[in-house]
From TrEMBL, chains A, B:
InterPro entries: ADH_Fe/GldA, ADH_Fe_C, Alcohol_dehydrogenase_Fe, HOT. It is found in: Mitochondrion. Residues 226-409 form the Fe-containing alcohol dehydrogenase-like C-terminal domain. This is Hydroxyacid-oxoacid transhydrogenase. One of its GO terms (cellular component) is mitochondrion.
Amino acid sequence: MAASSIRFGPGVTAEVGMDFRNLGVRRVALVTDATLRALRPVEVAVAALERERVRYAVYADVRVEPGEGSIKHAVSWAKAEQPDAFLAVGGGSVMDTAKLMNLYTCYPSASFLDFVNKPLGGGRPIDKPLKPLICVPTTAGTGSETTGTAIFDLAGKRAKTGVAHRALKPLLGICDPLNTRTMPSAVHASSGLDVLCHSLESWTAIPYHERVPRPTNPILRPAYQGANPISDIFSLQALRATVKYLPRAVRDPDDAEAQSQMLLAATLAGVGFGNAGVHLCHGMSYPISSQNPARYHHPGYVVPHPIIPHGVSVAVTAPAVFRFTGPSNPDRHLAAAEIFGVDIANVKSESAGEVLSEALSEFLVKLGDQPRGLKALGFSEGDVDGLVEGTIPQRRVLMLAPNLASEEEAEKGREQLRGLFLDAMEY
Amino acid sequence: MAASSIRFGPGVTAEVGMDFRNLGVRRVALVTDATLRALRPVEVAVAALERERVRYAVYADVRVEPGEGSIKHAVSWAKAEQPDAFLAVGGGSVMDTAKLMNLYTCYPSASFLDFVNKPLGGGRPIDKPLKPLICVPTTAGTGSETTGTAIFDLAGKRAKTGVAHRALKPLLGICDPLNTRTMPSAVHASSGLDVLCHSLESWTAIPYHERVPRPTNPILRPAYQGANPISDIFSLQALRATVKYLPRAVRDPDDAEAQSQMLLAATLAGVGFGNAGVHLCHGMSYPISSQNPARYHHPGYVVPHPIIPHGVSVAVTAPAVFRFTGPSNPDRHLAAAEIFGVDIANVKSESAGEVLSEALSEFLVKLGDQPRGLKALGFSEGDVDGLVEGTIPQRRVLMLAPNLASEEEAEKGREQLRGLFLDAMEY
């Protein structure tokens, strides 16, 4: 496995000008969103660039939970600007948009779907190094500063998809706890839930040596390899930190220790799932966020359109998912339950999934302001078939889901997903 | 921090031909030593290259614990061969020699000392990418497949030194448990002790945020950054695995699980210390191995010259070192002692160093065939001044030693090192 470079510490954002100067970069595209444009993280980054006389142009039109349209807008801008390097200051939406701006300016004649994951896109591998990208996360969630993945909504497909390739990885992630202080409490909560699911899904993903088909050449290995001894270390450590610090970070915006530890946890989880992969919570979340039939607008999110934040849509199915995956590896599910504080001494293996599911539900309820199932987000049983159809194309993550029927048994798999969505209606 | 790519699993060596073909490499320098030349790891690697029709030339003259002379010999060979890439199959000596062959063929007009660590060398930074290097470790110890460090004896200086720079890092480490089966038991033991000290030293090194002087530009950060939240995870996991599996691996050469886990532990410890650094055990080990006044030849090492293996020379001072460093961070020393099985519930902070020291001594004694102190290696009190003088130039690691006087208080530092060597005479 490969990891990006990570720099962690309060104040390290101020070094980013020197980083670009050290790289010999003359013109940087600073990618952010309209809200952040006026906030401290961007201000510090801009001052750092100016201090080192690195020229820059700002793109601040990134959309939260980006779609094909907003990505294409950003790519056109970048093609016209022709920067030598990219600097993303923001959350997952900003970092993922910047990765795609970088990709498509390095392949100016590629069509948009060429690199998009199969089966929705062509799954074309990136066969040359891209321009340097430095990511400065302002949320503690996505871990995108460590991964080679960029996710967005594909117009007309009612599902999210993305591009996943090692070459998309940022050169450097600058994790500065001073930058997550601008997060509203609701963003703390939902981005922290993303970390929770990254760590739990990568910890329970099928093991790397059971992934089929085995590639005939190492270059064909997917970015998501299945749970492995190195990703395990990152995923478990991130889970421990999230269980301990997320409730504090949500409750008290001035708890600097909790916020700093959550930023680190997000990065650790990023390395874990960036190599091991995620599975059902993420695979099922894309149609949930994307379809949003009742135009749900999550409280605390200041955006001019309905939104089921990514972290909310992954966590809402988690109690159902880990009940379902429990039998695949009871020991791992019990180890996770123990991290939530469950005394597992007398728990039987058969109950491992149920016990983890209950611990998770309790954690979510105590965290506060979370929908207790898909119903609370406005979904009804009539939406389940659409959700299943929006999940099926997430082959890249579903192939890592334990207990799920393989692609060859398509009908059985659909039935299992239907059961999972129904079970996720209420917890 | 940055990590090399690691591929782990039984049989993965057979993929190395495809790796070079994927890289577009036409001619590989295969670097190994005379013993390994005839053994299975080299045989498998050669077959893999031939299967993919990658041309190669073999350099099998690497010396165990290499010196300036053997490095220069290897570099001359490489300059004449002009390979596109390097493949190291062997232990730390082989991997470190291959790193330096790569470096000096990429800088053909550099003088040998230019890149060597200060103060013995010029400490010139490597300012361009080197040729691809793939490392296939055949011992479970050095972790060199993950690091940017190459260590050797400097003629006439009675001390080891080396080159340390991120650019020296291998592109890929192929960790194949089938390759460590050729290790004699004595090599298992001493290379495992290297892992033990890598993990303990990096776990107890001064924290990254206390390292002084602070660099004015991120490019000036040393490869060894001090203990940090990411290296901690690797170091502790490696320590746990070593305490559990090293005794089994030494006792039973057919214990495939223990051997495989030790190979993984060595790699994890490599990532840990490769980013956090090592300190006193390593700093003091270089003159121990290098000076060897009684021409000690460690039992089980089939080499035609006297040898204090690297792992033996680092572990021999460990009980004294961690007694000394205990007060710097009692919690960390107690956490380490707990991994050795000590019940720390009622141990006072003041005893943390002593308790870890005792746990270590007991572990070393039980492992068997280890010298119980410097006396058993043939050192006497009259050698201590020479050992101290050989340690002082190891500034790169001494700056990470907790409790040690700074460079400015040179005499106090010498006195502390003298005390440590005297304390290490017997345990």
